[in-house]
Amino acid sequence: MVHPQMEEDKQLLQPYPRDFKTIPTVTDYGKGEDAPLNKEVESDRLQFLAESLEKSLKRAVETKKRPIFTIALIAGDMVILDAIHRAGLLDKIKVIFIDTYTLFPETLAFLREVEAHYGFKVHVYHAKDIESQAEFEARYGTEYWRQDIEAYDQLCKVEPLQRALSEFSSDCWVNGRRRDHGAERAGLAVYEGTKLNPLAFWSFEDCWSYLRHYNVPYHPLHDAGYASLGDKHSTIPVPPEKWMAYAGERSGRFVGLTNSDGTAKTECGIHSKNRPAKKARTEAPTGSAQTA
Predict the structure, then answer these.
(1) Residue among 162, 130, 129 at smallest CA distance from 291
(2) Which of 29, 67, 99, 276 has the greatest number of beta carbons closer than 10 A?
(3) What is the pLDDT of residue 266?
(4) In sequence order, which residues have a C-beta less than 8 Å from that of residue 208 and are 6 or more positions away?
(5) 3-class secondary structure for the chain?
(6) 212-241 burial, b if ≥16 CB within 10 A, otherwise e?
């Protein structure tokens, strides 16, 4: 008997073929003998990137005690998850998913699909002591993010992530940030203290080359024009010509949102170094009291 949730997910995701046909490509391989040569170069690059990714993940497992990977199910995250699976490390790197209770329904359906595809269970975290979206909306309404974006980020993203890091006593946080995301991420390196950014030097096009090469399942809403996925209230589709441009992937995120200090919002607060509350702590005079 088919579980009702599985049938519901199937119906929700059915409109999205996920055959890569709607995903923009930008590389001009040229004509004549140029085309096969350029494709060979691209193939060699992809092989190098995949090997480097696997090496970084294996090093994390070998040198760290409790690595975790936070996944939002976007293209780069699916590259990392697939690489973890291929390297046989799914039992050694815990996979964490933050449910903000404001996600697209397709995201949660895809999460269940991914679990079935790779044969594992994600550790789901959400706002503390709130066990369902219905309970969250009953307590905070459907537009809490509009009332106080900092408080919303802290409740729905920052605290759940901090709780995951604490409960797993993690000493290595694997994540999918890349330099070509732009903004605060432009100078990112692979090794960043307790953070591991294995895709730091990848491009968005590299991610899609990997997904195509290994036929990795991808988020259904990429087929609907969404280059990146986050909260449904602040995520919009991105024109195809912008997908592979510098900072283009995330240009459809945090739309219409500003930080409490009036600056444009480019991070949700989990990674941000310039989030006002966080910035105030890190810039506090030496010797002054600081809180976590």
Answers:
(1) 162
(2) 67
(3) 72
(4) 20, 23, 25, 75
(5) CCCHHHHHHHHHHCCCCCCCCCCCCCCCCCCCCHHHHHHHHHHHHHHHHHHHHHHHHHHHHHHCCCEEEECCCCHHHHHHHHHHHHCCCCCCCEEEEECCCCECHHHHHHHHHHHHHHCCCCEEECCCCCCCHHHHHHHHCCCHHHHCHHHHHHHHHHHHHHHHHHHCCCCEEECCCCHHHCHHHCCCCCEECCEECCCCCCCHHHHHHHHHHHCCCCCHHHHHCCCCCCECCCCCCCCHHHCCCCCCHHHHCCCCCECCCCCECCCCCCCCCCCHHHHHHHCCCCCCCCCC
(6) eeeebbbbbbbbeebbbbbbeebbeebeee
Q: CB–CB of 70/94 below 8 Å?
A: no
Other Cβ atoms closer than 10 A to 188: 18
CB-CB contact of 70 with 64 (8 Å): no
Size of the chain, expressed as the number of residues it contains:
292
Check 156, 172, 207, 268 and give the catalytic one: 268
- Pairing label, strands 195-196, 191-192: antiparallel
What are the structure tokens assigned to 278, written together?
């966080």
Whole-number pLDDT of residue 1:
56
Q: Specify the pLDDT at position 263.
A: 76
- Percent share of the chain, pLDDT over 70: 90
pTM, whole model, 2 decimals?
0.90
207 annotated active-site: no
| Cβ contact 82:214 at 8 Å | yes
What rounded mean pLDDT belongs to the chain?
91
| Displacement of CA 116 from its chain's centroid (Å) | 19
Q: Which of 152, 150, 129, 131 is nearest to 140 (CA)?
A: 152
Contact 227, 249 (CB under 8 A): yes
